[in-house]
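Q: Got a minute? One more chain.
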Amino acid sequence: MASSKHLPALSLAMSILLCACTLPVPPANDDASAPANAESEVELVEEVFEEAASSPPAKAEVVTEKLLPSGFLQVGRDTAPVTLRMFTEHHCRYCKDFHEDHMPLLEEEFIATGQVKMEIGILTLKKYLDSDLAAMGLLCAGAQGKGLAMHGLLFASVINAQSLPKLSDTLKMDTKAFNACLKSEGTKATLTAMESLAQSLDVTLVPTFFINGEKSVGLPYYADLRGAIEEKLGE
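A: Always. Here it is, folded:
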């Protein structure tokens, strides 16, 4: 795996734990001692960090979203000076942690204020049978302006062919159009293009982030993520 740049550390005496879900790769040998459980999906990286105290975020405004032709779900204003692009997946627990813990703070502090726009892309994991289905569910909900809401439901729900139409009903979507989108060759082609883009960027772990093009892998502390964004805003 190619090395990646980490989010800037707040202090040389501080520490950070980055967690990431790995994409499946063929084993190099038949070593029976290799872990066979879900823990083998996790890679841990440690650096010196101590999370700084943070002030509470400002009250959030309504944020806008739109599905881009590339398949990324954009959240925030087109004019935002900082773009936070994320590759994620709905079975990855660190991706879920980011959505539940960091995303609300990002929306309030940076996205609603017009400083950051986020681009959410799905990198499917072949080891999960319904990974492609979840990704298509996000794309098809995004086409109806319900992408971010569906994104949250997919993290919280059992995903299968029966559950997705129910989720679309929950969001009061056009279920007929949603189901047609799930079967569309165009939707499948968008996922294939997303996978090709990820490969070209050497994305082999989820979550992976690009802040104005600068790559970082794993789930950061929010204070560290804030510092990276503020650094880009100051450039």
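A: The radius of gyration is 18 Å.
Q: Perfect, thanks.
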